[in-house]
Amino acid sequence: MKGQLSQDLLDEIDALTSSIGEDLVTVNEGDKELKVTITVALDPSPKTILISAEDDYRQFETLQLPPVELHCRLSTSYPLEQPTTDVASIWMPTLMKEKLLCCLDEIARANTGYPVLFLCYETVKSFVAEMGIHEIHIDSNDFSQQHKLRPIELLKLVREESERAEMSAFLAQCHDCEVSPLTCLADNCESSASQTIIIELLGQKEFDRYEGILLKKALEKMDDMVTCPRISCQKPSILSETTEYLATCLVCGYNFCTACYRLYHGVDPCFGTWGLREVTLDEYLLASQEDRMKMAL
């Protein structure tokens, strides 16, 4: 099949990678078929899932199941010929996997002649979500048989991958430009993750950045507080109740003008706004369009 990929197929793969991320799609081109592997990152479960092995004493709870790998083999006649699909999962029981494969086969047959890669991806996500999984007993599935793992060994692996998937979800939330407090992954649950857990997942450097952005956003909502413009400080500063545009940092004592963020200059006009101090990336991302234009001066 090398060199025989149609433009429609290339466009379909490009659309898929653009939609879910390049790191989640792998394409291997063979002589007679194209093998596409899609890593399906699952949505957090709205309720806790209990995963156990051998006996009830060896178990753990999670809201985030590890991803499922979707394997699609496409012939040179695709999409006129439906793809061959398979799934690989370290946690999925054999019976559930068989049901999922039946759903994928129905999707492929019902859409013969049309692109189905994204439909198959969506089918895997919705299938797991609609199963309403509350408990999984790890005994023997295709993955454990293939890798000759005992139930307790498989349970340990599932736990590690669940924690890794949960960390990925937190990282995605943390790196979003619209940073918000990291909360429980369950729907309609607003309890915040503890500081210890966040530091363990993100590391001290990312945690400090996360805390700084949350503080800045909180200060922006306060009418009488702003952030100290000193790069080495960036702590809360209080606005003067009697003098317009005057603010004083509560930590370093720096008096500055809230219009230009330089040393307070009384009735003298501001000299530009951002030109004499370094602007951080976080500060730029959180600034209004008007302030961004001023930063560029």
From TrEMBL:
It comes from the Eukaryota. Residues 11-131 form the RWD domain. It comes from Teladorsagia circumcincta (Brown stomach worm). The keyword Metal-binding applies. GO terms for molecular function: zinc ion binding. This is IBR domain protein. SUPFAM superfamilies: RING/U-box, UBC-like. The lineage of its organism: Eukaryota, Metazoa, Ecdysozoa, Nematoda, Chromadorea. InterPro entries: IBR_dom (IPR002867), RWD_dom (IPR006575), UBQ-conjugating_enzyme/RWD (IPR016135). CDD domains: BRcat_RBR_RNF14 (cd20341), RWD_RNF14 (cd23820). Keywords: Metal-binding, Ubl conjugation pathway, Zinc, Zinc-finger.
